[in-house]
């Protein structure tokens, strides 16, 4: 696991995307990496812990190279494609794959961070870096999560189109957002508990420490406010996606 000016200079153009075949070949030689292999990119939202940067492979054989992120031309800071100032790692994956890479960073206290899907060559690192940046944007505000994009695809769609996310939130949760914060939080917390308990009112009541009729009444009120039914799959999708937008917003529910 290495970092420094030399490695950053070689990784930067690959992470920016659009590298020519000659540049890919030179970077592969300079870094000691195969041009083709099982790679993932990690983008961290905070400085990488010193413990994460060490010589030698992981237990499963994964090898890490740390470098600075370079945004693609025209990328805006704060967008999935604008990763300036982020800590970025290229990982030549071992036998355990990207799940183990994410687990290792969690164990070291890194985060928040996003991990890309697996790509098959150094030439694809630019696309992987953009996807890892999108995964990072799905982390809860203020959290230390390390998340893989493949675990957060619906939320990734939302953060990729913020104008549609804003519209979805207003359309689905508009009346709910007019409630006083304490009342709104109670309904949101109940919906979250119900979803996490697989739609069981009884288990949600036990988690929340209230009677099951209380949970039932809160959910019925939420249905009236949003004009959507929890028993209709398409309308439930609307509610779940709106809940994700609310979770990812910086404002408390």
UniProtKB/TrEMBL annotation:
Q: Which domain of life does the UniProt lineage start with?
A: Bacteria
| Protein name as it appears in the record | Helix-turn-helix domain-containing protein
The signal peptide, as residue positions, is: none
Q: One Pfam match, by short name?
A: HTH_30
InterPro entries associated with the record? CdaR-like_regulators, PucR_C-HTH_dom, PucR_C-HTH_sf
Q: Which residues form a coiled coil?
A: none
**Domain PucR C-terminal helix-turn-helix spans what residues?**
187-244
């Amino acid at each position: 696991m290495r970092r420094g000016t030399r490695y950053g200079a070689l990784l930067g153009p690959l992470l920016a995307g659009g590298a020519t075949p000659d540049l890919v070949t030179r970077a592969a030689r300079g870094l000691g990496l195969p041009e083709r292999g099982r790679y993932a990119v990690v983008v961290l939202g905070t400085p990488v812990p010193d413990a994460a940067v060490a010589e030698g492979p992981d237990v499963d054989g994964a090898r890490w190279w740390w470098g600075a992120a370079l945004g693609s031309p025209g990328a805006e800071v704060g967008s999935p494609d604008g990763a300036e100032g982020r800590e970025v790692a290229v990982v030549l994956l071992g036998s355990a794959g990207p799940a183990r890479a994410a687990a290792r960073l969690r164990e070291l206290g890194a985060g928040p961070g996003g991990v890309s899907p697996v790509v098959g060559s150094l030439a694809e690192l630019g696309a992987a870096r953009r996807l890892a940046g999108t995964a990072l944007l799905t982390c809860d505000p203020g959290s230390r999560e390390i998340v893989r994009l493949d675990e957060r695809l619906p939320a990734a769609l939302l953060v990729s189109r913020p104008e549609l996310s804003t519209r979805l939130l207003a359309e689905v949760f508009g009346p709910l957002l007019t409630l006083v914060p304490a009342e709104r939080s109670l309904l949101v917390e109940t919906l979250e508990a119900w979803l996490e308990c697989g739609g069981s009112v009884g288990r949600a009541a036990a988690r929340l420490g209230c009677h099951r009729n209380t949970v039932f009444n809160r959910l019925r009120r939420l249905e009236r406010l949003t004009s959507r039914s929890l028993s209709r799959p398409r309308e439930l999708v609307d509610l779940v996606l709106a809940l994700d937008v609310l979770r990812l917003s910086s404002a408390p529910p």
